[in-house]
Amino acid sequence: MPSAADRLALMVNGEARAVAPGTSVTDLLAEIGLAERKVAVERNLEIVPRSQYATTILCAGDAIEIVHFIGGG
């Protein structure tokens, strides 16, 4: 199991978070418990297209903003 020193520090919605090297946007969403189809993700002030979630690998220092869509009426 990777040690804490092996994890990458980043910000998610303004809060510090550590992830394993090689973590993709898809992995991060799964770790948080959010469905890909119900969110929009911004990485370092740029929207990440949903089609690129699996191939967008997070880096130390990234600033991630996740907007979760909630249906209702």
From TrEMBL:
It comes from the Bacteria. The gene is thiS. This is Sulfur carrier protein ThiS. NCBIfam families: thiS. It comes from Roseococcus pinisoli.
